[in-house]
Amino acid sequence: AQSVSQHNHHVILSEAASLELGCNYSYGGTVNLFWYVQYPGQHLQLLLKYFSGDPLVKGIKGFEAEFIKSKFSFNLRKPSVQWSDTAEYFCAVNTGTASKLTFGTGTRLQVTL
Amino acid sequence: EAGVAQSPRYKIIEKRQSVAFWCNPISGHATLYWYQQILGQGPKLLIQFQNNGVVDDSQLPKDRFSAERLKGVDSTLKIQPAKLEDSAVYLCASSYRTGEVSPLHFGNGTRLTVT
Predict the structure, then answer these.
(1) For residues B106 and B91, what is the distance between their CA atoms, to the nearest angstrom?
(2) Given B93, B100, B109, which is nearest A51 (Cβ)?
(3) Is the peptide bond before B8 cis (omega within 30 degrees of 0)?
(4) Per-residue pLDDT tens digits for B70-96
């Protein structure tokens, strides 16, 4: 069964700092990869997804992620974070046969002014 | 479009009591999921429906949890009897169809506290 690891549990950054959140998965076959975000008091929502093609995918609000197959990674990046990016970020993977998503434990991002 | 609706938002019960959660997915979404999110962990799939049939319930504790989606639209998740370790947020999600190209849309969840 697939699993997802997010090694950064809590990240604190100042506004305008660059962000990179790590995500590694364990599955040897074809995968679909997702980043979801949960803003305080809101529901989980899709940030970006990778199914195939260009391994660098762009999502909403200036976020991007790069799929590196050889490293089993799908790290999330943003060049300059804003206070409004304060949220919890979840990496998730499914193996393409169904939409059963396996989530990581999440990374809480706190952006200070 | 209207999002995934869940109720109640919060529920506090004592152990050994029963509880039920309700979910109404986005109109036209054939696939419905129930996830359990324990504090400090990522969501864990409990059960997945395709229309009114169960696709995956391998992680559902069937001795105490049950779920149904009788008419292929809304769904209920029940816990009977509840245990302390069931304290969590129960998330409902829906997608247009089963398949890798259909991202999930989540509701706000029901936060259950078992005392």
Answers:
(1) 7
(2) B100
(3) yes
(4) 888 999 999 999 999 999 999 999 988
